[in-house]
Structures are given as C-alpha cells and as structure tokens.
C-alpha cells in the first residue's frame, strides 16, 4: 500500500493576513477559539520587545485582523505554528 505524503511546500506556514483568532488556532488547534485567542494574547503581551515591535507596525489591542508584517513578527518570535 502506498502512503500519501503531502508536499513539504503545502505544509509550510504561509505569511499572509490572518484574523487574530485564526492565527491563535494555528498555534493551538485543540483549544476553543476563545481560549486560543487569550493564550496568544498572553504570549504577545508578556514579551515587551514583540509588543513594542508590533505597535511600531501599527498593531493595537483591539485589532482583529493582522497584517502580513505583524504575522511575520509573531512567527519570528514564536516560531511557525
């Protein structure tokens, strides 16, 4: 029996615009969306440099949609989901 393996490019995380909860679920797929969102928020605000860099890129606390640049900053800090 032949196993079906995904192409490595298909598995690589794509930097693009994400909703906050959408990105949070990429990191925590087994959590409820609200819990995943709160956890991502804690990870971000507990790192002063990341928070400062995100704010410099236009991020604000109530923002629900992240720009590709902001997503890239989070991924650079946390690693790929």
Automatic annotation (TrEMBL):
<dbReference type="InterPro" id="IPR025342">
    <property type="entry name" value="DUF4248"/>
</dbReference>
<dbReference type="Pfam" id="PF14053">
    <property type="entry name" value="DUF4248"/>
</dbReference>
<protein>
    <recommendedName>
        <fullName>DUF4248 domain-containing protein</fullName>
    </recommendedName>
</protein>
